[in-house]
Amino acid sequence: MTKNLQGRIALALGVLIFALVGMLPLKEKINLGLDLQGGMHLLLKVDTSKLPEEAREDAPTKALEIIRNRIDEFGVKELSVYRQGSDEIVVQLPGVTDRDRARELIGKTALLEFKLVEDNQELYSKALQGDVPDGYELKDVDKEKILLNKNTLLTGDTLVNAEVKFDQSRFNESYVAIEFNAKGASIFSEITGANVGKRLAIVLDGKVHSAPRINERIPSGRASITGRFTVEEASDLAIVLRAGTLPAPIYIEEERTVGPLLGRDSINSGIRASLIGLILVFIFMIAYYLFAGMIASFAMLLNFVIILGTLGWIHTTLTLPGIAGMILTVGMAVDANVLIFERMREEMATGKHMRSVISFGYDKAYSAIFDSNITTLIAAALLFQFGSGPIKGFGVTLTIGLIASMFTGIFVTRIIFEILSNNKGFTKLRMLKLFPKTNIDFIAKRWIAYTASIIILVAGLGTYLMRGEKMYGIDFTGGQIQEYSFASPVSAEEIRKSMDAIGIKDATIQQFANKNQVLIKTAADETTKISETLKTSFQNNPAELLRVEKVGPSVGKHLKKNAFLALMLSLAGILIYVGIRFKNMIYASAGVIALIHDVAVGMGALAMAGGEMDLNIIAALLTIAGYSINDTIVIYDRIRENLKLYRKASMKEIVNISVNQTLSRTMLTSFMTLLAVVSIFLFGGEVLRPFSFVLLAGMISGVYSTVYIASPLIISWHTKQSKN
């Protein structure tokens, strides 16, 4: 065993140990995303429009600290609160599914004010008749109308404590006891001393909670806020008062809430899809490549370990699209093994020694493997850059998986084969061969293919354009969706009747294959209203809220812009890279046209199936872009090689030879990648079904476009260039 081989074995073992240390114990190293464990994702906007110029810049920073303090006291583990842009705050609350309570806690301004109640009966009577005097406001408290002087005597700025206490004289009713600092206590003492016999209203965010009568001066700086609170309401009020008043109003621009039931279903679906996809790929690899397939399967298992270990080391969050990325990585990792094994098969056919077979097989496959993975990494990097939440998780997992698959597919498997080649008995590598050597004139059929593509694209994209705004989900248009799970099947008509009864006429109601689950889409935030009516309308068939997603119109426009920018940049990046690697923009342009074709087919298939464009679909389209050029580069690499071997052959002959030589690899890789994608489609759950459907359409199109579009275009443009 050479020192070089010993060094590579040591490196491989080092990476394995690194991955195992990062992975174990798994539960402590990798956090589950909100879509897997339940929780809330909120994008908040700090409204600084009414603040003076000098206070606007500091307001978002102050709001961030106040919100973080509130959530800290709420007791959320692994929370994430950070500033985004100039006036936005992102809040992620894993495990929190009581959305109403969380929204109230985070969004409450908590402006505490003390105002005097006007006891002039003449002014009070006028106010009741609708003639409210200037400087006053009419308010409700405990079913009573009171007239408040608008002048604020004291605010909550000087509060030092707020805690929940219980009034035993009122059947242990909870209230909030507050305490002022020395300055506040002095002001409070003056107010109460000067207004003995009058009523002092305690106002929070414009709502009067109580208006007790002042019986004497209160020098202690202590007061209480009553209002028939539940213990939970009193506790939350105490939290926001202790954390302080927000410097400006806050609006929820985007919300994604996932209930624990849907989270558990997502985990189960993801694991099931992963195992089925992995097992199917392993079975085929071992059945087709025999012993070499066993080595490849071991490498793919190691690939999983490296992905999980790296995720553990960087303490990333694993999302449902992230699991899909892992499954997809396994399917795409097969590509490297198939390329190498098919190259080794060609070398064995020439009668070479096994050491030479291994060496030539890996060396000749390397450039195609490297180029195809780099182009897919371009798409993955853009997912991370422009994606949000789960889509970033998909981009991270796909990136790590591609790098890991190159390491295991090229580096680790070669070590194993070289160790085996030291054994004198290792003289042959048996493999099945389903695809005979072909000599099909693919190029002659290019005009038929062009015509078929035009018909497919016109039908798909025509449907896309005809659907207009209906083609876009709330990620891009704004709006809100709520998904409910009923105890027993329910019809869309029954849901529609209950919506009509509360005046919601424009709701879109969608049922899944499981008739128990219903998706309701509305233009505005109607969750509380809808939940209440479903409780009363279906008392014998209770519904559980599985998830809520809300996107404001401005956020929708921003997400739409970023999503399509990512697609355009992906195309540009791939065009530039392929042009540089092949030193010819003809190859790059033809490949990108085929890539655009496949992305358009995916979009058209989605439109014709009645689906909606959202962030998950953008992730699928970017993956199609990476995968499509992956296939094309393999053929381009063989064309580049054959141009040196067949110097007297025409370009048409070389392209046909190259397509035929790589046909078995194209079919095998595509088949095994589709096995992984089909497992996501069938077993990955409803959330990933549109995602995997678009992937299926785009990847099938990718095989077709590589042979019938990317390759023939080279001939057409090469001929024109030669004439010029």
Any overview of this molecule?
By secondary structure, the chain is an alpha+beta fold. The protein folds into three domains: 134 residues, Gyrase A, domain 2 (2-Layer Sandwich); 359 residues, Multidrug efflux transporter AcrB transmembrane domain (Multidrug efflux transporter AcrB transmembrane fold, Up-down Bundle), CATH 1.20.1640.10; 73 residues, Alpha-Beta Plaits. It is 61% helix and 16% strand. The strands form five sheets. Strands 3-4-2-14-19-16-18-17 form an eight-stranded antiparallel beta sheet. A four-stranded antiparallel beta sheet has the order 8-5-11-12, covered by helices on one side. A hairpin with a 2-residue loop joins β6 and β7. α10 runs parallel beside α12, α13 runs antiparallel to α14 and α21 runs parallel beside α24. The longest helix is centred in the C-terminal third of the chain and has 35 residues. The mean pLDDT is 86.
Protein topology:
Blueprint: H1 3-23, H2 26-29, E1 31-32, H3 34-37, E2 39-46, H4 53-56, H5 59-74, E3 80-84, E4 88-94, H6 99-107, E5 112-116, H7 121-128, E6 136-141, E7 144-149, E8 154-155, E9 159-167, E10 173-180, H8 182-194, E11 200-204, E12 207-210, E13 222-229, H9 231-243, E14 250-258, H10 260-289, H11 291-313, E15 317-318, H12 320-349, H13 354-386, H14 390-421, H15 446-467, H16 474-477, E16 479-486, H17 492-501, E17 508-511, E18 517-522, H18 527-537, E19 543-551, H19 553-582, H20 585-608, H21 615-645, H22 651-661, H23 663-683, H24 689-723
Parallel strand pairs: 1-15
Antiparallel strand pairs: 2-4, 2-14, 3-4, 5-8, 5-11, 6-7, 9-10, 10-13, 11-12, 14-19, 16-18, 16-19, 17-18
Helix pairs in contact: 1-11, 1-14, 5-9, 10-11, 10-12, 10-23, 11-12, 11-14, 12-13, 12-14, 12-23, 13-14, 13-19, 13-21, 15-20, 19-20, 19-21, 20-21, 20-24, 21-22, 21-24, 22-24, 23-24
